[in-house]
Amino acid sequence: MLALLCSFLLLAARASTDMDTDTAEPGSNTAEQIRDMHVKVTEIWQALTHRGARDGGPGADLYTACSVQPSASIGAAQPRVTGLVLFRQLAPGAKLEAFLDLEGFTAEHNGSARAIHVHQFGDVSQGCEATGPHYNPLGVPHPQHPGDFGNFWVRDGSLWKYRTGLNASLVGPHSIVGRAVVVHAGQDDLGRGGDQASVENGNAGPRLACCVVGVCGPEPWARQAQKHAERKKRWRENECKAA
Ligand SMILES: [Cu+2]
Ligand SMILES: [Zn+2]
Q1: pTM for this one?
Q2: Active site annotation includes 207
Q3: Closest listed ligand to the CA of 198
Q4: Other beta carbons less than 10 A from residue 229's beta carbon
Q5: Which of 21, 62, 105, 164 could form a disulfide with 170 if both were Cys (CB 3.0 to 4.6 A apart)?
Q6: Cα 86 to the chain's mean position, in Å?
Q7: Contacts for 103 with CB less than 8 Å, ≥ 6 apart
Q8: Within 10 A of 75 (CB to CB), how many other CB atoms are there?
Q9: Where is the signal peptide (predicted)?
Q10: How far is the CA of 142 from the centre of ligand 2 (A)?
Q11: Could you say which ligand is closest to the alpha carbon of residue 148?
Q12: Which of the following is catalytic: 101, 145, 179, 189?
């Protein structure tokens, strides 16, 4: 299987080089070439590892779980955030869905936003600092990284959200499996801060908590979907009572 993949990669690389000599000046569109190569490699990867996915049959869904723990290096004044981040990808090439379920914030955090990103390394051994910079396989500015999930609002001391359309993958050469999800103390300026840090990390502040994205079965997702539906129903009922 590995030898076959290598052969495909070499063929894809040769095809890309041939195409480039016909259509572009050397080095004039490196980013585009990298993107083309990424698409080709992803297609080959998908063909080799998920042959059943096109039919939507068993094995097409991909799931991960990430058990969020407070960073070992946060200050005593910072909230100790714990919880769960789940991802689901219904087919290779599809956008990600996520459940985020975090607690440990205090009432004074209600109504404030927290940035959440995927960082490069799945290493939390020295606190969340060990996870490195944003995962950035294509060398693009923030907030175009695959794990730039933006801002999430704290309410009732917790942060819970179901999101769709996330621009990251659990399969292929740019998979986020084995990398880290980091919850920040501040808000993501989404690259509009006007300084270098803004286009690297959104000036999102200290790293409160983090976890490593690991492959799992469908059960955690099913449990979280039920919990989310019940919580949303309760929240709506409370809103109605308050109105
Ligand atoms: Cu981050
Ligand atoms: Zn980023």
Answers
A1: 0.79
A2: yes
A3: 2
A4: 11
A5: 62
A6: 10
A7: 81, 82, 83, 157, 158, 159
A8: 9
A9: 1-17
A10: 4
A11: 2
A12: 145
